Amino acid sequence: MTESMRRVAIVGGSRIPFCRSNTILADKSNLDMLAAAIDGVVDRFDLVGEQIDEVMAGAVMTHSRDFNLAREAVLSSKLSPLTPGITLQQACGTSLQAALNLGAKIATGQIDCGIAAGTDTTSDAPIVFGNKFSKRMIHLSQARGTKQRLAALKGFSPSELKPVSPTNGEMRTGLSMGQHCERMAREWEITRKDQDQLAYDSHMKAAAAYDSGFFDNLVTPWGGVSRDNNLRADSTLEKLATLRTAFERGPEATLTAANSTPLTDGAAAVLLCSEEWAAEHNLPVQAYLVTGRSASVDFVNDEGLLMAPTVAVAEMLQRTGLGLQDFDFYEIHEAFAAQVLCTLKAWESEEYCSKRLGLDEPLGSIDREKLNVNGSSLAVGHPFAATGARIMANLSQLLAEKGSGRGLISVCTAGGMGVCAILERP
After folding, report:
1. 19 tagged catalytic
2. Which is catalytic among the residues 180, 203, 333, 382?
3. Is residue 276 within 8 Å of 111, Cβ to Cβ?
4. One of 19, 92, 181, 342 is an active-site residue; which one?
5. How far from chain centre, in Å, is Cα 121?
6. What is 177-213+290-425's CATH topology?
7. Active-site residue (options: 113, 342, 412, 420)
8. Is residue 113 among the annotated active site residues?
């Protein structure tokens, strides 16, 4: 432990290309992808055989075999097998929360280095049987002799073999995230036109970033693909306007497949360390992780499911003394275009900032030219647990290229939670 807090350096990150569910990476597992993302960091920063203090990673959609996912990924990677692997999960905030946890340990001297990562696949989603058949199988496995086995099978019906498909619905409400976001869009009067515009902009920015070479060091070709396959450089606002709504029907419905993130397979990782460790390994520091914050909202009782980042960011800014306008870049995860626009509108609202956030005045507007400057999840995709690491790696590289500045990360998650962070390059 150190007597004073150390700065938390971000060396950089790497990810595999993100692909729409049931396409190019459909036969890859969470373990396959997570190990590949970790190896992308290993290869980029010459860490083959290195013993890292901790790898902290997770996934949202997991099989029972993934119970020790981070450690298994370490053992499948080029890192030293002496590297511990810690598995955690906070829905879509998983890898950002992993980075915050590692950052706290680095700052206090508990560790010198760590890799935060996340992976998810909805192509390899767990398919399980109902509770009745599952319990029957447990009783059958415990049976001793023919009599007990027959007793375990007594009353069996073929209907018990019907699998339970995975769902992205909220357990407390039964509504999907898209249905919740439709409610938010209506509450905040977010138009279909504005949502489509944000989605279009995300694709155009991401395509331009690929063309400029921004992603050359960030995206490691793997699995037969070198570029995110959700990206549509040829998209037009006219095409987007023709799409049917995806979660609700009727004149008030506004969310479509284009202005909502698709189910996505992929993984991402980012390397954090002390300044001393970076110097010892001759690694340049791109940026510094300054602070972070998590918050929740009571979505069960009608708060917007994806509005927790408004709370997390407000609380984080109060603790740091910064204003919402004190940033050069804003990386706001685009779960849905409507969710981003609701967040921005809430920060501008005097009533919301007063009644919900307890502020004397609104946080205010941001410069939209600084928002997701190289695109975000609507364009590249959203493998749930991987998004935080992707965004942190993007932002640290943006700050390194700029030479100095400050960036804000905001990620909404299932369960009515939000995770945010501040990165700086002095």
Report:
1. no
2. 382
3. no
4. 92
5. 12
6. Peroxisomal Thiolase; Chain A, domain 1 (3.40.47)
7. 412
8. no
